[in-house]
Amino acid sequence: MRILLYALICFPLSFFSQKKVKVVGISDGDTITVLLDGNIQQKLRLAEVDCPENRQPFGKNAKKFTSDKVFGKQITFTETNKDRYGRSVAKVYYDKGKYLSAEIIKAGYGWWYYSYSKDISLGKMQDTAKIQKLGLWQDKKAVSPWDFRKEQRENAKKKRLEKQLQQQMAI
């Protein structure tokens, strides 16, 4: 009985937290900009998926895929969290309920972001895309975006340290 009561209380809250908006920008495969009421723009980071960075192989393909699916269209989203950059992390739905993150993973343009998702069906979609060599899975040496970003940070740190060392030696 308590579960039913809890469901009845929470369902209306989740229903009303969905927002219907227009997509006005695509930053990359997993980040879009929407137009809220009052002409306010808001960046949304797609939940449960991580796409290649624009500088990575297939990064531009992922961006184009996302753009082809939702740019200029009305979508519905539910905010699930905020990321460390303050962007809203959201589940985005388009074309009568298609889940954008799942469509990206199925097409092979993004990784299931298992560190932030419990939905193992997305992992199965990723495995299928891998087997079929769809999208980025054509690349036998595909590097996950989180590993790519880590490598970029490490390289930047190494360059800063080298520069500091050169400056100290010049003194």
Structural class: alpha+beta
The helix content, as a percent range, equals: 40-55%
- Overall pLDDT level: 89
Strand order of the largest sheet: 1-2-3-6-5
Based on CA inertia axes, which overall geometry fits? Answer: globular
Beta-strand proportion: 25-35%
Order of helices and strands: HEEEEHEEEHEHH
**Main sheet characteristics:** 5 strands, mixed, barrel
Number of helices: 5
Explain what you see.
The chain is of the alpha+beta class and 171 residues long. Helix content is 43%, strand content 26%. The chain contains five helices and eight strands, in the order H-E-E-E-E-H-E-E-E-H-E-H-H. A hairpin with a 3-residue loop joins strand 2 and strand 3. 27% of the residues are buried. The N terminus is likely disordered.
Q: Which descriptors apply to this entry?
A:
8 strands, 5 helices
Q: Strands, helices and their partners?
A:
Elements: H1 2-16, E1 19-28, E2 31-36, E3 40-46, E4 49-50, H2 59-70, E5 74-82, E6 88-94, E7 98-99, H3 100-107, E8 111-112, H4 120-131, H5 145-170
Parallel strand pairs: 3-6
Antiparallel strand pairs: 1-2, 1-5, 2-3, 4-8, 5-6, 6-7
Helix pairs in contact: 3-4
Task: Please give a quick description of this structure.
With 171 residues, the protein is α+β, with helices and mostly antiparallel strands.
